[in-house]
Amino acid sequence: MPKTAPNNHHDAQAKLRHILRHATRVFSEKGYEGASIRDISRATGVSLSGLYYYFESKQKLLYLIQIHAFKSILKRLERRLAGVANPEERLRILVTNHVEYFLRHPMEMKVLAREEEFLEDPYRREVAEIKRRYYEMARRMFDEMRRAGRVRRVNPRVAVLSLFGMMNWVYKWHNPRVDPRAEHLAETLANIFLEGVANGHAGRGLRPVAIGRRAPSESARAAG
Amino acid sequence: MPKTAPNNHHDAQAKLRHILRHATRVFSEKGYEGASIRDISRATGVSLSGLYYYFESKQKLLYLIQIHAFKSILKRLERRLAGVANPEERLRILVTNHVEYFLRHPMEMKVLAREEEFLEDPYRREVAEIKRRYYEMARRMFDEMRRAGRVRRVNPRVAVLSLFGMMNWVYKWHNPRVDPRAEHLAETLANIFLEGVANGHAGRGLRPVAIGRRAPSESARAAG
DNA sequence: GTATTTTTCGAACGAACGTTCGACTCGAAT
DNA sequence: ATTCGAGTCGAACGTTCGTTCGAAAAATAC
Fold first, then answer.
1. β partners of residue A198
2. What's the pTM?
3. Cα–Cα distance measured from residue B190 to residue B219, given in angstroms and rounded to the nearest whole number
4. Protein-proximal nucleotides of chain C (any atom < 7 Å from a CB)
5. Which of A95, A195, A218 to mutate to test the interface with B (most CBs of B within 10 A)?
6. Running DSSP on this structure, what letter comes out for residue B219?
7. pLDDT tens digits, residue range B165-219?
């Protein structure tokens, strides 16, 4: 047996990933309700009934996509946050991580942002829970900033959810041909937010933070 | 004839409004693709075929809803802006107008925010055009602020679209039982944005603007 | 080689979809 | 009294939907 299939377990997993990748694209293009299993069959090359060997329902398929994306974002974020204590820096890392994932996986994010309400209660709850955990991370960073006196009087829930609004809206307008790349975009959003909630007097000014192994990016340039 | 139906023209218009109202609710609850004409028939009490006397297709129905909502927002905004010259004040009015409409007509706004890509090209273009006009209004206010030197170096397109992100995301999280009412919420969002893009040194500080005939609201209170 | 398990799929299920059509009602105009 | 057009609807059109099932094929174990 010189050729194919070294081992079933690996192959089955690989095929599931293949299906998830193409299903993500189809959902992002036509929406969850607008996309049919037949569309996904066509896109993956797997027969209609063959798909059901890998997931038991269309809902479960959406659930698998969403959970996978969230876990990826959270895992990467936790790795990047390790060892960083300053809450502003931590929030900047969260924004960079979010926006970077967004622009690197636009289809996943489109599905994540739009198709949440179609999950029903076994799945819905689990996705809601992981989303809540993500929000609470940002909220904790913000509360630490407040405790350190670096934030003016502002409703913290509204502030943090507005930050998510800025970040999550990006998929509606970002055009790679004219808009800044992830790192620069993240810096701009973080600057607007942090300055927007900052205590006027105590301000240490904007302080972009480099993450990963890249050099610090140039500061935001006015364009257009 | 003491009772009903003074005139057909009026009645037909009233019935169309009745249909649009209930269709908006159905779309906002189940999504455009998830809602069936039969759902709308059930919700309005009008028979399946009877509906088609008032609109020629499901698409057209969505189009009517979206156009109506946009025109309402724009009309109200233009009335409120009349006579106000200061660009910060104008932007604050835009935010208040937007958020107020949002919270007063949550279903319309949900449909507006989510179901844009389902329109096809006769309708799509027209809705996109009115949306562009709305964006350009905000963009022009922002550019005036820049010209007056009150904005730091920041990509204006990114800044303005981030403001829309904050505003448009509200429908995903706003809970009337725990979150601020429209006017207060609008003030917080406008503060975050205006401080977020403000020139550090030239700051005249936050200056909430009362609109309509209400007294100026108290400043944002930290909660939670 | 045979037995067993894992993977694949064609064909079909009943249900629901958007839309159409012809017939009906009924008040207004003649 | 009749004509007319606006408004209404039951029934049905053809299509597509998510899902199932039994059998074939491929891979693995014996």
1. A151
2. 0.86
3. 12
4. 6-12, 16-22, 27-28
5. A195
6. P
7. 999 999 999 999 999 999 999 999 999 999 999 987 654 455 555 554 444 444 4
